[in-house]
């Protein structure tokens, strides 16, 4: 899953090892199709308007999808082919050859000039594509470090994750998720950092680092949320500035105990998780969400634990508001609950794959916000197994 999900066609390698997305096949074949069309039209063209003059555009047509060497070769071919057409008396009913007629000589010169321009354009485009490929590589590497893929299985739980960035060139943003096996059970986090850009990414990295450590230490889920609140407050104080109170993170913490049977949830101003069962989809919302992280000082007892039954066959879906706030061209929000009720309860990876494609279809491939989702399923045909924490090697 994206992570996981990428779009585009085949890729071409670069000297630095970064791979460039290859243009579509029709664009690569466009110069050939262009010349073929001229060959079809030329014989029926009146002598006073030979179509061979249109070959002057061949270098620019080639520059759309090919590099400077290919454009230079196309320029040489265009000039030679113009000469062949001009020097062949039978073409377009010409009684004599016009190889050195001044109009044709002007066409040769214009084609050469346009070819030089096309070569420069192709070289510039190739450099820009390599720069963009480098940036995407760095972003994807940072994403793998920050949002590492969750395990496909933790004990008897099956997990899946989805991440979609609104900016295709960025591939990373302020949405986050994590799943950690601890002595207290499997602990889950999904969150959405206020704002965009590098500050949001840095805040997400700080929160994930704090969660990965504290999830093993805090025995109570509410205590874990309070510790994350203190961590975000310290970070906000370190950053300083006039917007300290506006730097917050909405989040949901969930815990599936080792003995199973239930799921505990602490909601910090985030969209409530969905519990999917055969025949029903429930919002896990009892009407008492806590404030977002870094705003807990506004409430005396900010974080409460809600507990729900989590039986074999159930699926838990945590998601960010980018899912429900995705709009279609008419401005209609994405109907997540309606979609989930119509899909039944597929396994996590199939569910997230379907959600991914449906969001792109609903928005006409124009996402306006980052999207993250985390799905956890307890298969009905497996007995409960205690997901013990990972042991450290003695060395």
From TrEMBL:
UniProt GO molecular function: phosphatase activity
Coiled coil: none
InterPro entries from the UniProt entry: Bact_Sigma-Reg, PPM-type-like_dom_sf, PPM-type_phosphatase-like_dom
UniProt keywords, alphabetically: Hydrolase, Membrane, Transmembrane, Transmembrane helix
Transmembrane segments: 25-41, 53-79, 104-123
Highest taxon of the lineage: Bacteria
Residues annotated as domain PPM-type phosphatase: 158-378
Protein name as catalogued: Membrane protein
Organism whose genome encodes this protein: Streptomyces lucensis JCM 4490
Lineage: Bacteria, Bacillati, Actinomycetota, Actinomycetes, Kitasatosporales
